[in-house]
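B., you asked whether I could sanity-check this one before it goes into the benchmark set. Here's the sequence:
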Amino acid sequence: MMAQPRNAGPLDVAKTVLYGLIGIRRKADHEGVRIRPLQVIVAAVVLVALFIFTLVTIVGVVTG
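And here's what the prediction gave me:
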């Protein structure tokens, strides 16, 4: 009998989004955690905003 997937924590959601950005994720990771779509959307927006902020900061440091 298969165990029920556990609810995802913030770290699980962040790892899922980061793995999705680079295109890798194991099937076992997908089946072991239950992630709601809202969690993925919020995490993706936050991580993309952090990525853009990082790029803008790097460009500002290099050109300034």
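One thing to flag: The first helix runs from residue 10 to 22. Otherwise nothing jumped out at me.
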